[in-house]
């Protein structure tokens, strides 16, 4: 250094500069690098040293200068950066990007140099800067007055400089002609992550967190798949926050949602890691080189925004170094070697084994308390809370949105409104426009990406792509926006299949999907499963496919908008009719004994089909579907629902004027009459019985007329007109004999047998039932009920023949439970309770009575013609046991489920095995039959032993 240079003393501002990526620039330019370096030095000497700075050291591409005045130093740096930016370099790749750092401290030169820690602090400030950026310490900022015209200092917060224990507040020089947006400073921060801070508590998901953590520890690429709003990001961030200490070089969150150009994915990741593009080098190469020697976890969120580009960058990162792991969230997998795909399940909606609320209810409780100012929901709302989460399929975003609605609605009101899922959840959330805010370096990361990408030659974002970026940030504001995010990525076939699948209420198998489309659905179905819009659920018999309810609601809207609803829903009605027909047939296509269990899984689909028939489809098709559910409705305690569907279908007929054959009307009215009787509506029962007869006579079908006429006795029994009912039954049976349609009159046989039992004509009842047994065996829709055995068991009880009663009743009970006739099984259990009383086992009898009553209450079954008899027997049993013993045993039985009660009934010991059995004695005196009470003492509430 020349002796004539006068070095400043006292408060000195030190300036360090160097070229970012100088080694790469030298490799790129080769022999042309030296002229660029020389020109760079010339510009800096003219603008830095030429404005009062003392040049202490120039080595390679670096400068070290000292200024006596901090403001002058900042002005010199601003002038230098503008000169570099405005210079005409040989080509854009040759432009050197110079970083500059300033720090002011007290120092005195000795022997033409400074030996002070302030020099090292200034060097560390410069090392934290990026190319084109000017950083200064708080000490320089305090003394840099006045600033150049139009310039200001942007506070970047506290940072720990390498080699220093304390934290330094850094400021960035901002002025016209300088870049503004840069990645975070390259400092040695203690917390090596940028995970977003959550403002709400994380609820539940303990098993999922444990499983996902194990996968991340064992595999380098784990992709969390799920539908929009399933909670992928929240779970991934929660997991990542717990493993920060396991990655010395950090855990880094990168949101791909706002990336509008596949070429910018690498830039997005690089911006988070604090990397800048190197001249003439692909950004992904810079990224891979940086990551190769580091041990870190990269959390790539919403990769489905740019799946192919994300897959390429991930593949390069994993191949470039063994210390890098990737946890990705997406709605579709990448298909990369070594990728572990983990599908996030919906939140559990069923209560825990220990009685605690499910995760879904816990989340709704937490968010509801927040929406209501900290006030927890009332315990009385628990049942409605469970209804809400079950209706929302445990989808976290849907639950969050539902909780917001609870500021306005009660939980019960919300549950009632969820038939319109999207309309209810998205109410009041119409495309909000967020106000402009200064988001800091983290929020402006996309602007940084845009700038560095533009510097590297990438296309700058247009207003249209900015709109896409805004939609990306708002995609979780409404359910519609969330699903639209995925829907817009579908091809025509996949989009059509999604729309058409909305007509199904529950899971479907591959054959059903193929039947719906009339084409091979494998390709579009695979797309929907891959994009997490349809869930594939493997089973031993084959996979089934279903949509979460919010997605189904969205797809249904799209179906209507596309003008395809009529065709799709009519197709679904046809499928429902076909499925109902198959439930009555065996593998060989021949009728089999009707099992109501075969109808249970179809109930949701049949209700959906009925809804369409009653609102936009064919009422005739709806009546046929309703007929297929005839016995199912009554045996499941849903007679009222059956009546309501029929009323809606009648309304549809009146609305459209659709022509319905008289035979079909007669069958519907007959079914309606039986539903009304089971529901205790006796006047309605009689009215529809009369309508059924009139329509059946118009139809001219003898078998149909026999079935309808056989039901005419039912309302008479229900209204206590037993003699008239018996007369009607005999007339119907005689007429059916004459027309050779006796099998169609079986209901009249059953009712007549009940009436004969009631008045003690046991021999006639037994003969009538004996003749009916072979007829019943030919009727697939009736033989599973084993009504003949049930009634013979009741006759045997009245005769005191416990052995015959036991055998008949157990046959009836097994058959009824085997074929799903739960309401009728209750009658049989009551009869077995009476058999236990007579057989000396009163405690079992009381338990069976208690279990039956609890089940009947759940099924909303009326006691029928036996109601008074059961009441008398229970009163007698109470006298036998005493109030306390009876009540205890009865309550114990009420705790049993139907299957447990049936098992108890079937375990009753056969009378032949009892020590005092009289079956094989030479003389036998059976107990005298108990006569039924006079007709005037009873008025039964309904009928159970009916077709």
Total DSSP helices: 42
Measured as a percent range, the helix fraction is 40-55%
Rg value: 41 Å
What is the CATH first-level class name of the largest domain?
Mainly Alpha
**Weakly predicted, low-confidence segments:** 430-475, 919-947
Class inferred from helices and paired strands:
alpha/beta
Q: How many structural domains are formed by the residues?
A: 5
CATH superfamily of the largest domain: Tetratricopeptide repeat domain
Shape: elongated
Key words describing this protein structure:
single chain, 947 residues, Rossmann fold, 5 domains, seven-stranded mixed β-sheet, five-stranded parallel β-sheet, 15 strands, A/G_cyclase, Nucleotide_cyclase, TPR-like_helical_dom_sf, adenylate cyclase activity
């Amino acid at each position: 250094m020349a002796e004539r240079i006068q070095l400043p003393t006292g408060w000195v501002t030190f300036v360090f500069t160097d070229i970012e990526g100088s080694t790469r620039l030298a490799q790129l330019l080769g022999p042309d690098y030296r002229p660029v370096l020389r020109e760079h030095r010339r510009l800096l000497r003219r603008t830095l040293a030429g404005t009062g700075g003392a040049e202490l050291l120039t080595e390679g591409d670096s400068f070290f200068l000292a200024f006596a005045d901090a403001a002058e130093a900042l002005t010199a740096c601003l002038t230098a950066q503008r000169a570099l930016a405005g210079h005409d370099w040989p080509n854009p790749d040759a432009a050197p990007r110079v970083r500059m750092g300033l720090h002011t401290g007290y120092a005195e030169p000795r022997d033409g140099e400074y030996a002070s820690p302030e020099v090292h602090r200034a060097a560390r400030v410069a090392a934290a800067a990026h190319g084109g950026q000017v950083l200064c310490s708080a000490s320089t900022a305090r003394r840099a007055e006045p600033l150049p015209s139009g310039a200001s200092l942007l506070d970047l917060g506290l940072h720990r400089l390498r080699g220093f224990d304390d934290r330094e507040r850094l400021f960035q020089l901002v002025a016209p002609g300088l870049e503004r947006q840069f990645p975070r400073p390259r400092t040695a921060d203690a917390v090596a992550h940028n995970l977003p801070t959550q403002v709400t508590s994380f609820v539940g998901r303990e098993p999922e967190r444990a499983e996902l953590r194990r996968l991340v520890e064992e595999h380098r690429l784990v992709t969390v798949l799920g539908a929009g709003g399933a909670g992928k990001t929240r779970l991934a961030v929660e997991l990542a926050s717990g493993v920060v200490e396991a990655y010395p070089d950090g855990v880094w969150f990168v949101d791909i949602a706002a990336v509008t150009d596949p070429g910018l994915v690498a830039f997005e990741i690089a911006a988070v890691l604090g990397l800048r593009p190197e001249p003439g080098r692909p950004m992904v190469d810079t990224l891979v080189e940086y990551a190769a020697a580091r041990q870190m976890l990269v959390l790539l969120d919403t990769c489905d925004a740019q799946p192919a580009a994300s897959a390429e960058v991930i593949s390069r990162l994993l191949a470039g170094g063994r210390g890098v792991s990737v946890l990705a969230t997406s709605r579709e997998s990448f298909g990369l070697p070594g990728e572990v795909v983990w599908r996030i399940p919906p939140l559990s909606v069923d209560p825990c084994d220990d009685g605690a609320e499910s995760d879904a209810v816990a989340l709704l409780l937490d968010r509801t308390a927040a929406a209501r100012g900290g006030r927890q929901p009332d315990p009385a709302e628990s049942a409605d809370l469970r209804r809400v989460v079950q209706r929302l399929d445990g989808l976290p975003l849907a639950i969050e949105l539902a909780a917001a609605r609870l500021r306005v609605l009660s939980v019960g009101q919300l549950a009632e409104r969820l038939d319109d899922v999207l309309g209810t959840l998205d109410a009041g959330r119409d495309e909000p426009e967020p106000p402009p805010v200064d988001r800091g370096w983290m929020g402006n990361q996309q602007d940084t990406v845009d700038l560095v990408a533009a510097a590297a030659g990438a296309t700058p974002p247009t207003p249209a792509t900015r709109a896409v970026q805004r939609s990306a940030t708002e995609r979780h504001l409404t359910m519609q926006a969330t699903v639209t995010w995925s829907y817009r990525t579908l091809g025509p076939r996949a989009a059509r299949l999604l729309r058409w699948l909305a007509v199904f209420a529950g899971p479907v198998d591959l054959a059903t999907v193929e039947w719906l489309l009339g084409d091979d659905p494998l390709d579009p179905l695979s797309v929907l499963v891959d994009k997490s819009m349809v869930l594939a659920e493997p089973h031993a018999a084959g996979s089934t496919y279903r949509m979460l309810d919010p997605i189904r609601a969205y797809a249904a809207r799209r179906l209507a908008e596309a003008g395809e609803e009529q065709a799709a829903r009519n197709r679904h009605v046809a499928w429902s009719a076909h499925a109902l027909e198959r439930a009555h047939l065996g593998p060989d296509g021949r009728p089999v004994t009707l099992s109501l269990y075969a109808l249970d899984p179809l109930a949701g689909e049949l209700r959906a089909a009925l809804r369409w028939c009653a609102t936009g489809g064919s009422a005739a098709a709806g009546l046929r579907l309703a007929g297929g559910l005839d016995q199912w409705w009554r045996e499941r305690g849903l007679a009222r629902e059956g009546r309501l569907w029929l009323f809606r279908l009648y309304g549809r007929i009146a609305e459209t004027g659709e022509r319905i054959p008289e035979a079909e009307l007669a069958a519907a009215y007959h079914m309606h009459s039986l539903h009304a009787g089971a529901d205790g509506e006796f006047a309605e029962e009689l009215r529809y019985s009369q309508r059924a007869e009139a329509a059946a006579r118009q139809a001219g079908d003898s078998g149909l007329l026999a079935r309808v006429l056989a039901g005419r006795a039912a309302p008479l029994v229900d209204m206590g007109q037993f003699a008239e009912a018996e007369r009607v039954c005999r007339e119907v049976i005689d007429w059916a004999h004459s027309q050779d349609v006796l099998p169609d009159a079986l209901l009249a046989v059953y009712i007549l047998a009940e009436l004969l039992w009631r008045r003690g004509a046991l021999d006639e009842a037994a003969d009538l039932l004996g003749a009916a047994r072979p007829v019943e065996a030919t009727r697939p829709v009736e033989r599973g009920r084993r009504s003949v055995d049930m009634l013979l068991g009741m006759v045997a009880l009245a005769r005191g023949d416990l052995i015959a009663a036991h055998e008949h009743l157990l046959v009836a009970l097994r058959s009824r439970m085997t074929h799903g006739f739960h309401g009728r099984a209750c009658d049989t259990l009551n009869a077995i309770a009476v058999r236990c009383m007579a057989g000396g086992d009163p405690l079992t009898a009381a338990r069976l009575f208690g279990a039956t009553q609890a089940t009947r209450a759940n099924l909303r079954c009326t006691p029928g013609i036996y109601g008074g008899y059961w009441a008398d027997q229970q009163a007698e049993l109470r006298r036998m046991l005493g109030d306390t013993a009876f009540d205890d045993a009865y309550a114990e039985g009420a705790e049993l489920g139907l299957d447990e009660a049936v098992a108890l009934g079937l375990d009753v010991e056969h009378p032949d095995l009892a020590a005092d059995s009289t079956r094989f004695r030479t003389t036998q005196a059976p107990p005298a039959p108990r006569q039924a009470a006079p007709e005037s003492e009873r008025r039964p509430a309904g009928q159970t032993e009916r077709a």
